[in-house]
Design goal:
The complex is a heterodimer of chains A (173) and B (120). Chain A has 173 residues and is of the alpha+beta class. Chain A has one domain: Heat Shock Protein 90, CATH 3.30.565. In chain A, 25% of the residues lie in helices and 26% in strands. Chain A is built from three helices and five strands. A five-stranded antiparallel β-sheet of chain A has the order 1-2-3-5-4, covered by helices on one side. In chain A, a hairpin with a 2-residue loop joins strand 4 and strand 5. In chain A, helix 1 runs antiparallel to helix 2. The longest helix of chain A is centred in the middle third of the chain and has 22 residues. With 120 residues, chain B is of the alpha/beta class. Chain B has a single domain, classed as 2-Layer Sandwich (Transcription Regulator spoIIAA), CATH 3.30.750.24. Helix content of chain B is 33%, strand content 23%. Chain B contains four helices and seven strands; from the N terminus they run βββαββαβαβα. In chain B, the strands form two sheets. Chain B has a five-stranded mixed β-sheet. A two-stranded parallel ribbon of chain B has the order 3-5. In chain B, helix 3 links the parallel strand 6 and strand 7. In chain B, helix 1 packs parallel to helix 2. Chain B starts with a strand and ends in an 11-residue tail after the last helix. The interface between A and B is medium-sized, with 32 and 29 residues. Chain A: Keywords: Kinase, Serine/threonine-protein kinase, Transferase.
Chain lengths: 173, 120
């Protein structure tokens, strides 16, 4: 009779996805900027068992912040009665791993039902002419992969993938 | 709750943000607090972000708004960007329009701003 292999110590689980199948992280919350802030805190806390690098964690927090804030400001236009439903799953992706994120809301659709492109600074423009907004979608598109958007029966559903680079800060992967 | 501590030395004011986040929920307050804090500022205003660990596009917009509002008589510079904050400026290429100091003390020690220009 063969003995079961010893369970890895908690700290060793981090780099071994197969050893830790995460349950789906789901948060349902009201559409206010303070609720978004709280939801970001709970999301990051929920992802702590994955031991993300600081760089990965900050990218995930930034993309989620931009997506969720956009829903509060534009889909619900500040109506705190709106509801946001966020789901995050962790899984293998090609040769690496990724977080699969899905965000649903029941507010207005995007203009022309298309995701905005966003912008970065025009390097030829005078600094004083820099726009003060419009960078959110540029940041989302810079950091997230496979963005998709569908509108079904009054529900906006945005899906995207955050590749985890897993590099330790300051060291190559 | 958003507050900023300022100290002025010669032609430079250091404005230290005493908050961990300049996000969408804080951006308007940040703008208002900076407007009041820089009302009688000298020619260089250094925004010390050492305590800020998260800044999103709303926060970025509020920083740009502050830069524009105090111009042309005064220039906004940045100091002590945490990696997550530096990433936002870098990705949007807005790091090219600000002089960025390692720390508030390094800013105070700088006689002439060390312009940081790189291709973007």
């Amino acid at each position: 009779m063969r003995a079961d292999p010893p369970l890895p110590a908690a700290g060793r689980l981090a780099g071994d996805w197969h050893a830790m199948v995460q349950p789906e992280l789901r948060l349902v919350f009201s559409a206010s900027l303070l609720s978004v802030r709280a939801a970001l805190g709970r999301s990051l806390a929920g992802l702590e068992p994955l031991c993300l690098s600081h760089d990965d964690a900050s990218s995930v927090e930034l993309v989620l912040a931009e997506v969720l804030t956009n829903i509060v400001k534009h889909a619900y236009r500040g109506d705190p009665g709106g509801v946001i439903d966020l789901r995050i799953r962790h899984g293998p992706d090609g040769t690496g791993e990724a977080l699969l994120c899905e965000v649903r809301d029941y507010g207005r659709t995007f203009p022309r039902s298309c995701l905005p492109g966003g912008q970065k600074r025009d390097p030829d423009a005078e600094p004083i002419l820099c726009p003060e907004g419009g960078y959110g979608w540029f940041l989302i598109r810079s950091l997230a992969n496979d963005l998709s958007y569908v509108r079904t029966g009054g529900c906006n559903c945005l899906r995207f993938r955050m590749m985890l680079l897993r590099c330790r800060d300051g060291l190559p992967a | 709750m958003m507050d900023v501590t300022t100290r002025t030395q010669g032609t430079m004011m250091i404005a230290s943000v005493n908050a961990a986040r300049i996000d969408a929920a804080a951006a308007v307050q940040f703008r208002d607090v900076m407007q009041a804090a820089t009302a009688d500022a000298p020619s260089r205003v250094v925004l010390d972000l050492a305590q800020v660990t998260f800044l999103d596009s709303s926060g970025l917009g509020a920083v740009i708004g502050t830069m524009k509002r105090i111009a042309p008589d005064r220039r906004l510079e940045l100091a002590a960007l945490n990696p997550a904050v530096a990433k936002v400026f870098r990705l949007t290429c807005l790091d090219t329009i600000f002089v960025i100091h390692e720390s508030a003390d390094a800013a105070l020690a700088s006689e002439v701003p060390d312009g940081r220009a790189h291709a973007c």
